Amino acid sequence: MLPFDPIDEAARQWGERWEAVPAMHAVTSLMRVHQLVLGRLDAILRPHGLTFARYEALVLLTFSSRGSLPLGKMGERLQVHPTSVTSIVRRLEETGLVRRVPHPEDGRAVLAEITPEGRELVEVATADLVGADFAIGHLDEAQLRELSALLQPVRAGAGDFDD
After folding, report:
1. What angle do CA 137, 143, 144 make, to 5 degrees?
2. What CATH topology corresponds to 6-154?
3. Do 57 and 92 form a contact (C-beta atoms < 8 A)?
4. Is this prediction's pTM over 0.85?
């Protein structure tokens, strides 16, 4: 642990050379928090043989009405490259949490379908994440709502959803 905030120091030095210090500070803080939280989430999920990316894919399939989705649709909803979806599904398939099945209406498409074991693991892993406050338990409920509200226009502006 450093005895100073490295992002504050980076912002100080940034300001000696360039403009947009508040934006640089905010983005750098956001990216650092992403790294820290993702590392903690992955550590919580590791005993289950999951990464957060694989967990998100299982949850997405759990939320789907049939427990299955085309790989392309998974990529869109998870906002990951098709190669990443293929890799995630392959890893989940290797561990028996997902199976690939032919699309019933589109002979060219493949569906990822969650297995009963995958559904069971989602429940156990979710309980662990909830129990750990998703690695952001130092924020109270009002702060969590405020954080989500602050990030919503950034997400909308980046095309995450139609505002």
Report:
1. 60
2. Arc Repressor Mutant, subunit A (1.10.10)
3. yes
4. yes
Summarize pLDDT for 4-33 with one digit per residue, the tens.
Answer: 999 999 999 999 999 999 999 999 999 999
Report d(CA 73, CA 106) in Å as an integer: 13
What are the angstrom distances between the C-alpha of 115 and each of 21, 78, 95, 118?
A: 49, 19, 10, 5
Give residue 20's identity as a one-letter amino acid code: A
Q: Answer yes or no: is pLDDT of 108 > 90.
A: no
Task: Please state whether 139 falls in left (phi above 0), alpha (psi between -120 and 50) or beta.
Answer: beta
- Return the domain boundaries, the chain: 6-154
Q: Is residue 105's pLDDT more than 90?
A: no
Token pair 């992403």 is found at 34
The average confidence (pLDDT) of the chain is 96
Question: Alpha-carbon distance 89 to 83, whole Å?
Answer: 10
Give residue 97's pLDDT: 98
